[in-house]
Amino acid sequence: MSLKKTGPALRTAVLAVLGLIWLLPVYLLLVNAAKSPETFTTKESWVPTDFALFGNIAEALELSGLAESAASTLLYAVVAPAIAVLVGAAAGFAIVALRLRHGFAWFVAIFGGTVFPLQMILLPLFDAYSRTGLFDTQGGMIVVYTAISIPFSAFVMRNFFSGIAHNVFEAAVIDGASTWRIFARVYLPMASSALVAIFILQATFIWNDFLLGLVLSQSDTVRPIVTSLAGMQSTYGGAQMSTVLAGGLLVSLPTVVLFLFTQKFFARGLALGQY
Amino acid sequence: MTDKTLSPKALRQRDQYRWSALGFIAPGVLIVAVLLYLPLLWTTFLSLTEYNGLGDPEWTGLANYVEMFDDPGFIGSVLNTLLWVGGTLLVPVGIGLGVALLTWNLKGGTWLRLPFLIPYALSGIGVGVIWSFILSGDGALDQALAAFGIADTPRWLVDAPLNTVVMILATAWQGVGVNALLFTIGLQSIPREPLEAARMDGANGMRLFRSILWPMLRPLTAVVVGLSIVASLKTFDIVQGMTKGGPGRDSETLALTMYKETFVNSEYGLGSAIAVFLTVVTLIASILYLRQQLSSKHGV
């Protein structure tokens, strides 16, 4: 594969064809989610028949408590990353600006929380949640989502603050500002783009979570939306496929749209997290 | 900076900051310790016991680990997981690099990358819903193949190991975009001078790639590969959504086996042992990219 010799036209053509193939599942999802349960047939998937998308979405919201799940998940996906971003920024601030003793060890301790699989904490969390009354509560879900978002947040914020000259901190000290004030009024505002990047990445992650919702919740009002979608698929996947597809579309739309509109932040978050 | 160079006042102030620093780092450390490390230790302990949630865990030493390796279902799960690791390296990382190279410096490249990015933010379950529908018997794929005269198609989600392979391809459909995005960032950060110099010398295509691009992309590639390995080791959502590990246990991954033993069979000890095994494997794989991540950091 030649990069410069191969004409831009050929490269464009290859990408366009590959891109179209990539869009086929999206096309199939849209077309079939729009078919009313009466006209839907598993044998004719490629041809659009009618447009009952909104009816199907309304139906999907009724089935398996998707509407209640959506409200709760929105709450989790906003509150947990917001707390995690602040806690992570505070940790980064302590290590970089306040030059916490053994800062690197503390950093590794927090970041280490993200390197093992969730399977390692599921059972004790389930057990502890059941005993303490946190099982199947919105509070319990927010707590666990916050905890798993903190390591990445601390990681990115430490990297970000490392890029700020230390005399910014010293200048603020000379002005007589308290550490809290320096953090809230100087460092946080400077980091706003990084904070937003982490927030968006973590909100997407939480919205898409399946496993924690599966283990730590059971009622429609607490259960996160993706877990509800999975339940809907196994219950109604045979009889009401177009409704399930409409549910899938509904669940996927927020994160896909958020991602497409905030690609810049995403790329930035990923880059901050990985270099 | 030694203490002798500081005035008593500055020293006092520095101590004050150190105390304040502990206050700033405490929330993060406490939350992570209680919700992540404590459960981690408890799981490690449970893996050495017999326990079903009732009564107290009973110490059995390494019995769960012996039982685990004696179980053909577990070995199958390990092999499937390896297939996931290899497959997700080959397909999404490979195509991702290809898309990044093709769109690099190409007019309209941002738009041409868009179709690959659309599936990225989908949940594993969302991907599963779409692809289960496409791959079902006489579903969209079979209909398309029939149009080309191929009537005798395999049962995509039933025949093993084909079912794992098609689920890997569904994951690839989702993952190519983000890898392309990461490689694009890498390509854009390559300085112009060596590139221009190499082009002046007549390097093109494959030679340009091998002599300039690849060495410069290596650190990033290590990160992408590391992330891909770690993510594939944890594969759960899409398999649970599409086959539930079936038929039988044919498409189980380690994460799924752990879930089933623990939450379906109430074999808490055995489930914990599988979690520990998965963690050890993941940690070894993580070292590959953690070294990369931590070594390039500004030391603090």
Descriptive notes:
The complex is a heterodimer of chains A (275) and B (300). By secondary structure, chain A is an all-alpha fold. Chain A folds into two domains: 8-52, no CATH class; 59-274, MetI-like (MetI-like fold). Helix content of chain A is 74%, strand content 0%. Chain A has helices at 8-33, 53-62, 66-96, 103-111, 119-132, 138-162, 166-174, 179-190, 192-207, 211-216, 225-236, 241-261, 263-274. In chain A, α3 (66-96) runs parallel beside α6. The mean pLDDT of chain A is 89. Chain B has two domains: 3-46; 72-295, MetI-like (MetI-like fold, Orthogonal Bundle). Helix content of chain B is 73%, strand content 1%. In chain B, strands 1-2 form a two-stranded antiparallel ribbon. The interface between A and B is large, with 108 and 107 residues.
Q: Tell how many strands the DSSP assignment of chain A holds.
A: 0
CATH topology of the largest domain in chain A: MetI-like fold
Question: Largest interface: which pair?
Answer: A-B, 108 and 107 residues
| Count of separate DSSP helical elements of chain A | 13
Any idea what the shape of chain A is? globular
Structural class of the secondary elements of chain B? mainly alpha
Shape of chain B, please? flat
> Which regions of chain B contain 5 or more consecutive residues with pLDDT less than 50?
none
Residue share in helix of chain B = over 70%
What is the CATH first-level class name of the largest domain in chain A? Mainly Alpha
Whole-angstrom Rg of chain A? 23 Å
Examine the coordinates and then state which fold CATH places here, giving the name of the CATH topology of the largest domain in chain B.
Answer: MetI-like fold
Can you say what the CATH homologous superfamily of the largest domain in chain A is?
MetI-like
Strand content of chain A: under 5%
Subcellular location (chain B): Cell membrane
Pfam family, one (chain B): BPD_transp_1
Keywords (chain B): Cell membrane, Membrane, Transmembrane, Transmembrane helix, Transport
Main location (chain B): membrane
